[in-house]
Design goal:
Elements lengths: L8 E4 L1 E6 L4 E8 L6 E4 L1 E8 L2 E8 L10 E6 L2 E6 L5 E13 L2 E10 L8 E3 L1 H4 L3 E4 L11 H7 L5
Parallel strand pairs: 1-12, 3-11, 4-10
Antiparallel strand pairs: 2-3, 4-11, 5-6, 6-7, 8-9, 9-10
Length: about 160
C-alpha cells in the first residue's frame, strides 16, 4: 500500500480541473494511474508553422454532447508520440504543454490531443502529471472541490 508522504496532495479518481492558460475554466478529468500520459479531447487539430516552429490550433469542448463554452487554442507543438489507447490501438498524437490546476495546485503537464468523444471524461490525467506530488485514492472523488453548480449543470447538458 502506498502511504502518502507529507508533501503529497491527495486527489480522487475524478476531479474538476482548470486549464486557465488556454481559457478553459473547468473540465472534469479522470485521474488514471494506469495511463502514462495525460490526454485532452481536441477537435479539428491543425498543425501550422509560426516563425519556423510547428504550432497546433484546436478546439476544446469542455462538455459532453455540447458545443457550449468551446475554446479555440493555439500553442506550440512540444512533441509527437505513439500512444496505445485503452483499446490497444496505437496512434501518433500531438503533445502540447499546459498548466493544469489540480486539487488547488498548478502544475505543468504534457498533454496529448485526441478524440475522447466516446470516453466518459474530456480529460485524462496520467502518471507523468501525478508524479508531481499527487496520491490518488480510488475510493474518493472531487477532493479538490466541485465546480460551481452552474458549471456542473452545463456539463450534464442542462441550461442554467
Amino acid at each position: 500500500m502506498n502511504v502518502p508522504s507529507h508533501s503529497s496532495t491527495l486527489a480522487g479518481w475524478r476531479e474538476w480541473v482548470q486549464l486557465s492558460d488556454i481559457g478553459v475554466p473547468w473540465i472534469k478529468a479522470k485521474l488514471d494511474t494506469g495511463a502514462q500520459t495525460s490526454s485532452l479531447h481536441a477537435h479539428d487539430a491543425t498543425v501550422f508553422e509560426r516563425d519556423g516552429i510547428d504550432w497546433v490550433r484546436f478546439r476544446v469542448r469542455p462538455w459532453q454532447r455540447s458545443h457550449a463554452d468551446e475554446v479555440t487554442v493555439e500553442c506550440p507543438v512540444h512533441d509527437r508520440r505513439r500512444v496505445r489507447s485503452s483499446s490497444g490501438h496505437v496512434e501518433e498524437r500531438i503533445v502540447v504543454r499546459m498548466l493544469v490546476v489540480l486539487v488547488g495546485r498548478e502544475v505543468p503537464v504534457e498533454v496529448t490531443l485526441s478524440n475522447r468523444d466516446q470516453m466518459g471524461f474530456r480529460m485524462l490525467i496520467g502518471r507523468e502529471a501525478l508524479r508531481q506530488g499527487f496520491d490518488v485514492t480510488s475510493s474518493r472523488s472531487f477532493l479538490g472541490g466541485r465546480a460551481p453548480k452552474v458549471t456542473r449543470r452545463r456539463n450534464r447538458g442542462r441550461a442554467e
